[in-house]
Design a protein that fits this description.
This protein has about 400 residues and is an alpha/beta fold. The chain has helices at about 15-25, 65-80, 100-110, 130-140, 150-170, 205-215, 225-235, 250-255, 265-275, 275-280, 310-325, 360-370, 380-385, 390-395; strands at about 5-10, 40-50, 50-60, 85-90, 115-120, 145, 185-190, 220-225, 240-245, 260-265, 295-300, 330-335, 345-350, 375. The protein has a six-stranded mixed β-sheet with strand order 2-3-1-4-5-6, with helices on both faces. Strands 8-7-9-10 form a four-stranded parallel β-sheet, with helices on both faces. A four-stranded parallel β-sheet has the order 12-11-13-14, with helices on both faces. The two termini are about 25 Å apart.
Length: about 400
């Protein structure tokens, strides 16, 4: 899911953009001696040896004091910290500013690994006193670096340090079919042709499911809803599990006998990423929805919506029909920040999150859950609204 995301943070003119250029070996970011040249988080894709393709976020200075606009820039930099798999905090002049205190506290709270880099070693080398102070606080001293005079060996050492930190904090999702697939077991995957999928391709959760089943030596049988009844008659007791796209949950449940376990791709993803329990705790909040309540829809990818869109059309229609009242819906796409006080929402609904990294998804869910707002995901909500939630959750708990 997703690619590795690295954020570069620090005070204005600490050398954040220069570090990005040094890492990539090319001028991918604008560099200037004028403080505040980078005004908004800028994303660049680069390839790092031993890591592969990464998205690196070059952020604005954490000490931006330019009034309301400066505070907005700092807020956006901190929002970027919610999206990274690794933070690189650029220091200089033997200074650990207050803004770095706030950032390290946030990264620690989110369990995101970070690397301290003391830049401009050619101008003001790190003192033993400062190195000791950092070592006592963080368990290791900052890496000494000079963007202007870095050698190939220096860049290799920095890349190696990044790899090591990433390995320490690597989030490995639970295999989708752990405990559900075994050699020779037959699993039916019901995959209606999704009008929003790229032409000629399956959507990512379906591809991930096929690979996971193959990894366990089981048999993955991919079919459309129209073929399901025939396959069940043909294979009967040989079928150990049916997994369906959430959009045809009710239709599939009516065909699959109660003796055959049934769940959805979305619910399998929730178990894989460790968020299943959070969603289980939130599902009953549906019954508390009242006229005029606002539901927050969190869609971690960005795409062009159409009349069959699950998050913008189908779920709102099902939810309002179930509750018998008019609800308001607000959509946040991709990793856009959730603006305002979350207390104004009555429920949050998260998509499967297949297009972001496990850490990005977990941080998004944690941010919402910490506010006290109840949270469910697309598949679990559709199962609940279709009256088959208990049956669909059973294979996963």
């Amino acid at each position: 899911m997703g690619n590795t995301v690295i954020g570069i943070f620090g005070s204005r003119n600490a050398g954040k953009s220069s570090l990005l250029n040094s890492l990539s070996g090319q001028e991918v970011a604008i560099v200037s001696s004028v403080p505040g040249t980078t005004t908004d988080p800028v994303r660049k894709r680069i390839e790092l040896p031993g890591i592969g393709i990464c998205t690196v976020i070059d952020t604005a200075g954490l000490d931006d004091d330019g009034g309301d606009l400066g505070r907005e820039r700092v807020a956006r930099s901190l929002q970027a910290a919610e999206q990274v798999d690794l933070g690189i905090i650029v220091l200089s002049g033997n200074d650990f500013p207050p803004a770095a205190e706030d950032l390290t506290a946030l990264l620690r709270r989110r369990e995101v690994p970070f690397l301290l880099v003391h830049n401009r070693e050619d101008e003001a080398p790190m003192t033993e006193g400062f190195a000791g102070q950092m070592r006592r606080r963080f368990g290791s001293e900052p890496m000494r670096y000079s963007c202007l005079k870095a050698t190939t060996e220096d860049r290799d050492a920095l890349t190696a340090a990044i790899r090591a930190r990433l390995a320490e904090g690597l989030m490995r999702p639970r295999p989708m079919f752990e405990g559900l697939a075994a050699p020779g077991r037959r699993i039916l995957l019901v995959c209606p042709i999704d009008s929003e999928a790229p032409e000629g391709r399956l959507i990512l959760p379906q591809v991930m499911a096929i690979r996971s089943i193959l990894d366990y030596g089981a048999v993955a049988q991919v079919l459309q809803p129209e073929q399901l009844e025939y396959e069940i008659r043909s294979y009967g007791e040989q079928i150990s599990l049916v997994v369906t796209d959430s959009q045809v949950f009710a239709r599939v449940a009516a065909i699959v006998p109660g003796s055959i376990p049934l769940t959805s791709f979305s619910m399998l993803l929730a178990r894989s990423t460790g968020s299943l329990e959070v969603f289980r705790q939130g599902i009953r909040a549906v019954e508390s929805l009242r006229e005029g309540d606002t539901v927050l829809m969190l869609e971690s990818c960005s795409h062009h919506a159409n009349c069959e869109d699950i998050g913008r059309v189908k779920i709102p229609a099902l939810l309002q029909k179930h509750c018998g009242c008019r609800l308001n819906f607000e959509m946040v796409s991709g990793l856009d920040p959730i603006k305002g006080d979350l207390s104004r929402y009555a429920l949050a609904v998260q998509c499967g999150g297949c297009m972001v990294t496990p850490r990005q998804l977990r941080n998004r869910i944690a941010y919402v859950a910490e506010s006290g707002l109840k949270l469910v995901n697309y598949g679990m909500l559709i199962a609940y609204l279709s009256g088959i939630y208990d049956r669909a959750i059973k294979p996963l708990i």
